[in-house]
Design goal:
Elements lengths: L8 E3 L5 H5 L6 E4 L2 E4 L10 E4 L2 E3 L5 H8 L2
Parallel strand pairs: 1-5
Antiparallel strand pairs: 2-3, 3-4
């Protein structure tokens, strides 16, 4: 498997019923291959950013994930 590489995909999961009931807010931002997590309890804290090969929102269809990721 010389030259093989691993590709990483992440997906924001939909809010569960508890989070919906609490009127929770999404703390994730995605721009291109960068996913950023913002801590609303610590507004002065620097957001945490991560890079992935593929990033998907919760409303992206499962078939859409596979079609794009397998290219």
């Amino acid at each position: 498997m010389a030259g093989a590489s691993v590709k990483v995909a992440v997906r924001v999961r939909p809010f569960n019923s508890r989070e919906i009931g609490r009127d929770s807010k999404c703390i994730i931002q995605m721009t291109g291959s960068t996913t950023t997590i913002i801590n609303p309890k610590q507004p002065k804290e620097t957001p945490k950013s991560f890079s992935f090969d593929y990033s998907y929102w919760s409303h992206t269809t499962v078939s859409g994930h596979w079609e794009i990721s397998l290219l």
